[in-house]
Amino acid sequence: MDIGGTKIMAALVDAEGRISDRVYRPTPRQDPVATERAIAQMVAQLSEGDPRRPVGVGAAGWMDRDGCTVLFSPHLSWRNEPVRDRLAAQIGRPVTLVNDADAAGWAEYRFGSGRGESDMVCLTLGTGIGGAVILGGQIYRGKSGIAGEFGHQCIVPGGHRCACGNRGCWEQYASGNALGREGAELVRSNSPVAHRLRQAVGDDPQRVTGALVTELAAAGDPACQDLITDMGQWLGLGISNLVSVLDPGTVVIGGGLGSASEALVATAEESYRRTLSGRGYRPFAAVQRAQLGAAAGLIGAADLARRNTGGQ
Questions:
Q1: Which of 115, 141, 171, 272 could link 236 by a cystine bridge, Cβ 3.0 to 4.6 Å?
Q2: Which residues contact 94 (CB under 8 A, 6 or more apart)?
Q3: pTM for the full model?
Q4: Over the stretch 155-172, which tens digit does the pLDDT of each residue have?
C-alpha cells in the first residue's frame, strides 16, 4: 500500500519486486477511520482469500521507531494514531508500517539503482525533498524514527521562508515548489526571454508549476532550461552536505521531479562534485536516477513486510 494525500495505491508484489496487480481509490483525507477502512477493503480485494500474505503500508509522515504509531502525517489527519495495530485488527494479518520515502528508498536499494550498494542515500524530489538513508544494508531512522528529513537542512541562512517555520531550507531552492516559484517570478518580470512560459500560462504566474517548467525545459525552452540549471546547482550543494556527513556509495535521485529531468540530475552531479569537501582526496559517491518510478513505494513497503514476517 502507498497512502498519498489524494489517492491510495495497492498492489501485489512478488519476492523479486515485480507487480502483478494494482488498484487505486481516492484518499479520505480528513477521516482517518475511513482511510483505514479503505485500506482494509483494498487488501481484501487483492488478497484473493489468501490470509498468509503480509501487508506493507507506506505513508507520508513521521512514524515512531517501532513502526506502530503515525506521530504526524500532514495530509492524512493522523496525529499520534496507532495505525499499525488498528489495521492489523481489521485486516487479520501482519502489517508493516513505514514512511513512504523509506519504502521508496528501500525499493531502490533492493531492486533499483542502489542494488548491490550497502550504503545509500535516496532523495525524493517532489513538492519538497524527502528521502531515505540505507547504512550497512539497513534503513537508518535515527533515535526518534524520523531521520531523512533532508529538505529541512538550512542551506541559506535567512533565505526563503519554509512551511516548517524556518528560513532557507534546502527544499525552498531544490524542489518542485521552488521551481514553480522561480518560474512564476520570471512570468511576473514580463521578461521577453520567458515568452514561451508566459504563453503557456496566459501571463498568469499562479498557473506556473515545477512540472510545467520541467516540460518546457525538456522541449528546449532556454529560459526554463536556465531555471533547471539553477535548481540543479542548489541540489548538488545539498547533496555534497549529505555525502560529507554520511559517506554513502551511491546517491539515488527519484520522485516525480527527479525522474522527469535528466538535465537536473546531471547538473546536480556536476555541482556536487565541485563543492564536496576533500574532493580529490576521497572517492565520489555515484549519483544515479531512480529506476522504479511511482511504483517504488509499493515495492518497498511490500518487500519490508515480507522480510518482517520471515519471507524471502
A1: 272
A2: 54, 55, 88, 305, 308, 309
A3: 0.90
A4: 999 999 998 889 999 999
